[in-house]
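Archive entry: two folds, one per protein. Generate the first.
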Amino acid sequence: MRRLKREKIKSVILLCLIFSSMVLIGIHWNQQAQGFPFRFLTQFLVQSDAYYELNTKDIEALYFNPQEIVVSSGQSSQWKLQEGNSDFKKIWKDVKDNYLPVICSKRPYKVLSKDQWGTILKERYVRLDFSSSWPSDIVFWLENYNPKDFQAFESIQSIAIFPQKDVNEAVNTVYVYDNNQVYQYQINIGELFVEKKYYKTLADNLSMQEPGLSVMSAAFPIFVDLSFRDRGQEILVALDSQKTKPFSVLKAEVPPEILLDKKNNESIQSHILLSQKDSLMAKYSDSEAIFSDTENYYKLHYNGLLEYNYLPKNQKDIGNPRDALSQVLSFIEPRKSLNGGVSLVMTGFEKADIGYWVKFCYAYKGTPIYMVDPGNSEGQLVAPLAIKANGDRVLEVRWLIRSIKEEQPPENYSIYFGNLIEKQIPALYPEILEKEPYQFRKLEPGYVLNGNAENATLLKPDWIIGTEAREYIIPLEKGEK
């Protein structure tokens, strides 16, 4: 009897030792490579900030949102709705809760060529445009559907509702554009859907509030719209000389928590290294801080630029997009508080040799905030945050960390296209209009960060103009009060 009791005690002790060793291995792997070797351990240790796990609802709410919604009258006028607008919120909730689940659960009615997208957009519609093309693997994952059953589109760049295309009041025609093809769906309008009449009359209601925008290439055939060629999204311009838009002046600075200062070393390690703060070797100088071990290499520059590299080069399996995105967000989220509350918007998701490059820009109330590439003499604009990851771990990071907050309240700035073309461009960058046709890849208001700035800087709104050759920055002029 005593022997049996001793054997039971030994078995319990052995099981405790085995479990403890697995936990210790998991913690060690977590500190070395941003992830646990055994997924079930994250259920017990997920509070560790080295692996910050988001559920799909969090990802949808924080990142999977349209950049803007375009409402077209079907003729010459269009309106842009952005974050914070009541119609924007209503339409996106309807599409996210009602239309997307149907799109993910059925095959398209028709598949059309990319060349037909321009013809389709000549009718009245409400179109949701994303700043990046979202891979279908991620969309199906967020919507909790198996892509093997109904997958058609490769990604989502735009979703457009055409309320007048089907005479049946209980059906809406919807198109998904993925930069390669166009997918048509006939969707029955259920009880929880926004009524069809709302989409039919939205352009008319907006026209009574303010003049619409015009498609640049339609209003001025001398301009070639490269944005439409590349992303299927037209450049819209204001032809009304009184057209203005409110913008705030922002203040951008290196977060005080990570300023290079001897008194700040502990804060830097806590905010950058998180749970790895006591496991990496640290080396400080006036211009940078380096933290490393045999697998991880972090470098924080004086100007707030954070670089990270996973040192082993034996990575072969790139994994799938959804797992790579999870790794990317597990790196961003526990450090995102340093940004001062501005949003991060995904602007690129590209397959790389051993993973995926995922790029983000900052955004303030829907207006993008880019960065001038310090290594480019042409002043090329790049995403302030770029992360390469595979399904297992983050491999490389380049992040210009800035705390960005409103410094001055909104004022009206002119967005009149005529003033830009007739006065500002000829005065500042006449080479843009030297050769016809004039090719524009991008034309939008935004903010631009100076990547080399060490001290706090004010960000005022600019025109961001992209051509085939390069990008240009022209200050927006204040409109009439």
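Generate the second and append.
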Amino acid sequence: MSPNVGIQNNWKPKAWRDEYLEREMFSSPGQRWWNASEKMWGRDVQNQLVVDVFSDEGREFIKFSNGKEILVKTAWVWGWERLLEYSSPISVYR
């Protein structure tokens, strides 16, 4: 069966909801980290520390307001306490 059969027959999904796209299984690792950082730090701290979560050449990075960047993968390995210290304006990790 051709994938175009559904289009040709005007097939419409009966149980589709746009919020399905918000499920974590469809999120990028950067989006999952962003969501988790809000839960761990709270929105105010998150917005003070995190400038952006972005992709570059297939890898996802976090850019902090202190100018530092880190791979999302590394951020998960480091854990929240070490990452908070790294991302703070005054840090022992210079």
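Annotation attached to the second fold: The chain has a mean pLDDT of 87. The chain is about 45% helix and 15% strand.
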